[in-house]
Specification:
The complex is a heterotrimer.
Chain A: H1 7-19, H2 21-60, E1 65-68, E2 74-75, H3 77-83, E3 88-100, E4 107-113, H4 115-121, E5 128-129, H5 149-152, H6 155-159, E6 180-183, H7 185-191, E7 198-203, E8 206-215, E9 226-229, H8 230-236, E10 242-243, E11 245-250, H9 256-266, E12 272-274, H10 276-319, H11 321-329, H12 334-371, H13 391-418, H14 421-425, H15 440-453, H16 464-492, H17 498-509, H18 511-549, E13 554-557, H19 569-576, E14 581-592, E15 601-606, E16 616-619, H20 630-635, E17 644-648, H21 649-655, E18 662-667, E19 670-680, E20 689-693, H22 694-701, E21 708-713, H23 719-730, E22 736-738, H24 740-754, H25 756-783, H26 785-793, H27 798-840, H28 850-871, H29 873-877, H30 880-885
Parallel strand pairs in A: 4-9, 6-8, 15-20, 17-19
Antiparallel strand pairs in A: 1-11, 1-12, 2-10, 3-4, 3-11, 5-8, 6-9, 7-8, 13-21, 13-22, 14-15, 14-21, 16-19, 17-20, 18-19
Chain B: E1 2-9, E2 20-27, E3 32-36, H1 43-50, E4 58-63, E5 66-67, H2 73-83, E6 84-88, H3 99-109, H4 114-127, H5 143-155, E7 161-165, H6 173-189, E8 193-197, H7 201-205, E9 209-214, E10 217-220
Parallel strand pairs in B: 3-8, 3-9, 6-7, 7-8
Antiparallel strand pairs in B: 1-2, 1-4, 4-5, 9-10
Helix pairs in contact in B: 3-4, 3-5, 4-5, 5-6
Chain C: H1 3-6, E1 40-51, E2 56-67, E3 82-91, E4 98-106, E5 112-114, E6 120-123, E7 126-131, E8 139-145, E9 149-157, E10 162-163, E11 169-171, E12 179-196, E13 199-214, E14 224-232, E15 237-244, E16 250-258, E17 264-267, E18 272-281, E19 288-297, E20 300-306, E21 312-315, E22 321-332, E23 335-345
Antiparallel strand pairs in C: 1-2, 1-13, 2-3, 3-4, 5-6, 6-7, 7-8, 8-9, 9-12, 10-12, 11-12, 12-13, 14-15, 14-23, 15-16, 16-17, 18-19, 19-20, 20-22, 21-22, 22-23
Classes of the chains: A alpha+beta, B alpha/beta, C mainly beta.
Amino acid sequence: MAFTRHPLLRHLFLASLWRRPLATALTLLAMTLGVALGLAVQLIHATALDEFGRGLRLLGGEADLQVVGARAGFDDDWYLWLAQRPEVAVASPLLEIEARLPGQDRTLRIIGLDLFRVGAITPALLPRVDRTDDADPARTDAPHPNRDPDATASSDQAAAPPRTVATDGPDRLAVLRPDALFLSPTAARQITPAPGATIAVQVGLSERHLRYAGSVPGAGVGTALAVMDIGAAQQTFERIGRLTRVDLRLAPGITREAAQALLNAELPAGLRALTPADAASEALGLSRAYRVNLTMLAAIALVTGGFLVFSAQWLSVVRRRQEFALLRALGLDRRFLWRALLAEGATLGLIGGLLGVVLAYLMTALAFRVLGGDLGPGFFRGLAPPLRFEPFLTLLYLGLGICAGIIGAWFPAREAARMCPARALRAGDEAESYRAHPRWRLTSATLLLAAGLCVLPPVQGIPVFGYLAVALLLLGAVLALPGMTGVAMRLLGNGHGLIPRLARARLAAAPGQAVIAGAGVVASVALAVSMVIMVASFRDSLDAWLGTMLPADLYLRASAATASGALDEDAVARVSALPDVVGVRPVRFETVRLDRLPEPVELIARPVSTTSGLPLVAGRITASSRPADPTVATTLTSRSALPPAWISEALADRGELGLGDRLDLPLGEALHGFRIDGIWRDYARQQGAIVIELDDFRAITQDRLTNDLGLFLADGADPEAVMQTVRDTLGERVSEMIRPEALRGMILEVFDRTFLVTYLMQAVAVMIGLFGIGTTFAALATSRRKEFGILRHLGLERRQIGALLATEAALTAGVGVLVGLAAGGAIGIILIEVVNRQSFHWSMDIQIPTGVLAVFALTLIILAALAARLSGREAMRQDAVLAVREDW
Amino acid sequence: MLAIENLAKGFGPMPGEPLFQRVSLQLAPGESVAIMGESGVGKSTLLNCIAGLEPVAQGRIRLAGVDLTRLAEDDLAQLRRRQLGFVFQAFHLLPHLTLVQNVALPLWLLGQTEAHAERRARAMLERVGLARRGHDWPRHLSGGEMQRVAIARALVHEPALVLCDEPTGNLDPQRARAVLELLFEGIRASQAIGILVTHSQLAASFADRTLRLTRDGLIPEPD
Amino acid sequence: MLVFTLLFWTGVAAEDFAPVLEGRVLSFPQDTGAHPDHRIEWWYVTGWLTDTSGAERGFQVTFFRVATGIGADNPSRFAPRQLLIAHAAIADPAIGRLLHDARLERALEPLAGAAVARTQAWIRDWDLVLKGPPDGDEGYRTRIAADSFALDLTLTPTIPTVLNGRAGFSQKTPQLTHASYYYSRPQLAVSGQIRVRDRDLEVTGRAWLDHEWSSEIMPDDAQGWDWIGINLHDGGALMAFQMRRDDGTALWSAGTLTDPSGSTQALAPEEVRFRARRHWQSPRTGATYPVSWELDLDGRILRLEPLMDDQELDARPSTGILYWEGAVTLFDEEQEIGRGYLEMTGYGQHARF
């Protein structure tokens, strides 16, 4: 008879799950949460990545190569150069602009493109004029039943935009009109203008008015963007002669790699030909570390669930010893018993997994509604992805749930299968199962291995070994439990009073009980403590960092640095001339592409030596030694004569750069040498950032614009009043201002939101640990009914039995909490020094919130005692005499 | 045919000393024996050894020609499943199975379908006089009733050998007699071999003969 | 003649562009170049080719220049002030319909443009260029490379430039305002290579080039037109056209008859009559074209027969134009007297919107 349909499996094993509903429910809860959180993180990211990838494909079209530069773009001479290269069949120029919408807290991505060329590479971006009247009725509307294959197969046919220019509308040039803007369906929904209505966009500090002339029907549902003619875009956004991208279709007969190499050899510094895959990985690489970390957090819930399965199953096995012994005596073989007990775990995993999958989809749908496709750090802003069923991920997490159940049931099943039925048939034998030997050697080996793993480098930017070390530390902590229990009981000495002595004796004699009850506590406490330490350290360091990075009293900007607003010199001068403004600190943001890194790096040009400086972790701040004449500097080869640059930790790590190294920055399509004078901590730009003196930047680029302006106010000046004056000076709709306190508050709020998931996991882990103690002691109380019966016979009061249980629980939890605290501290340090360092490349000052942890530990111990006492109630109610008689 | 030859078991009260040795016994189908002896002499252990639940130090146990001492763990389980029935002092009914299900347990182990197993279990319950309580739970039964269910379970799959460990230890004499009658009637009716370990003269009197277990083997108990 | 079709590209008033005035003296070679101040301009080459096996095909290469009136104030090099459109086609009876392709670009040197001073129009590697003294003998070269065909032809004039209408001022309707500057280069001797469906062929033949520019919009009552340019076997040339009303009657017609010596005779509207003889319906678009005509030139009755019926060029997906543009033979009774091209517009769609 098939194993799964065997009546024994159903009536004796799976049915047992329903006979211990509390333990089963808790285990299911942990499994459900673990699967749900893990799957939800993956679903959100998979969908967001998918949508993001679709957007990339949409924007990248069928380009074989894309030539990209820094955010400010590059000279459009390079387009002409590229278009005439023999390797290139079609070149399509693009100017991408993140246009700030004045008076609104949003930007619109506008792509200026050559309508006559874009169709050959990215037909999805073709605009369609919205007709205001219908075509001539005389027109023959016959379809094309058998279109000329010779004509339609032609590439040049495709090069001219179908449907668009050819639209039989009243004005065939509508797409070329300088004010014509075409919105993708999503953008149109977000902005909701009427067709023909004007849309204001901000350029610098001024407003321009574009006309909603039609749609971008091919842009799909998820991507918000707008399209206009490239000539008009250059003019409107004052980017004459600039492009941000050229898409290339290669001539037949040349491979992508060969063309890439040929072009990159001749393209100037800072300009690079990338394959669409490069471009995609550029974007995805940024979010990967975040995604992996969240996934790991979700895995923790699953692991905790596995622990709970372990303790629940162990207790269940202990309780059913006689039953199993009987079955063995009646001829049940070991293999069936073993498989049946694994099946119990698998069933828990399956049910938890199924519930988790349902919950995950609900959570994902909710997250999409509330947060969009973004889990926190803003990688996928602007996406509005639809919820989709992901069969592979769903099955994977369901499988993981089942695995956790099976693994949790593994040891108890082995224990049950090993038991000697003849002995187990006799009563009062369950103490056997609580044997546990101190495993100091294994513990030390595990911990040493964990320590060794911490020094290994990450694998593809993911701290695999760091996570492995965390897992080993957890294992080591659990392994240390029996030994630590023994040590702790010895250290406690001969306690006073009957109850403590009994409790101590019990724990010393059956340290396995502490392992079973305490394993969940150790795991959850260790993880919670490590998270508390990491989050506290991070938050503290972030706060301090913000203080250094935001020294001014007030910050002014025309738009985010990525968007189209900027302050010109005149505006800066007018603002600095305002009364109550005693000083200004202008910042210019730019991106540069370094040869050694695949992604662009943020360049921050601002006064450094004359202001409050940088949150340096290495190096120093010195004044620029650049001579007044910039041409002289570039001819100097002496490193000390180079102007200083300060790089972020991420850049130092990823670019393998150190103090004193020479750093060549491509500015204005030529390389300029800098000397690395310092390394600073940066929590904002994961891909890396470089700070240089604003004067050096301006001398090289002649770029006089300012993105952010820090205002230092006179003592006693009212910031609100100054803000109003600035608004009056520059215009209400075109500038944004914020006080550093508010900004700091906002950033910390985002931080807290990001770690909301973490807090949730902590709460779940601790809850599970507590419930674990509760169920363990409930089960223990049941299985020790006879022992309590004897004690009652010997004259112990019912109350004293309760106290005994509570004391044992408190002692167990105490040991577990202590071990968990130690392990959590160690894991916290690994998270800070290894995991964060390797995935995000940022350091932080370790901060151990001792008070919080002490309260947490005490609470946990008290709660454990309470839980044990409550759950032991049933056992205490039992008629003691009856309990004794049962088997005596 | 059960043939025990020169059986010895370790772990006596003194180190290196056997618990018992030179235990030999031959029983034909339909034959039953009561084994008596002092507490701690290893009566239950002997029973466990015969059931293959505990290893022996020396000797052979042949059941229908098969030497149990040479069988592997899983084969022993198979053998117990097919050939052995057990009656315990503590009944060992599974509290969360109904009476019918408890009796059907050996049939389930043999892989029979639930319906078939239930039919046979019901018939068996009828034989022990509990036909109408098939769907009741063990906790609602008296000790005597519980042991009748246990006897039904021990005989339901028509084993060749029924091992009884102090089956009436928890019962008053009146109930004990009724249970013993049922038990021996069943053993004889199915031509099984019965081995009964007991302190009770009453129980022993139901067996065909009575032996006393000593450290040096089985000796006949004078009537 | 496509000039007027292309006017729907423009959305600005005619007064923004240079007017077409009678009496302006065309001067060459300057006027073979582009006239960016005029709204619309085209160079249009049609002809017959014979390959070494004797197989005959028609071909067409057209470059249009359109001034958009957009971006005059825009310093961007991408400002779409001028657009260039190219149509190219080969009529091969063995295939039974046109192989054709089109390109459309904004003028952006060096990728696409139309030079002033001498004919040079190009979109990427498609071009039409006039060479002449001091760079050697006068002659055109055109290169077209599409997926299904290619052309690389040298076109050498054998007779002088023909000014159509009144010294190059070509009136299109009874109103003088509807006119263009228009000259033709008939009897161009052709030699070069073509590629048709991956077969490279050496060809020779005879071609015709029209160059026309204007700023005017076609009048409301014109539905379309029919035009022919025929190289006569006697060495002369015939150009004739009619503007049609909705009901098919002629709104205006005119022509130019050139004798082998190069002297020309302008044909007045009443001297040019087109009469449809046979119709063909396109299975693709459903449009019905009179593919065979009777031509009445002041009483002399001639007959036009197509190389093949299906020479419809559907460029609506690219440039929005649907027309019939095909190789034709001119007969006098049963005597073949010339070969050239027939263009018919306004049969499938209104020529102007």
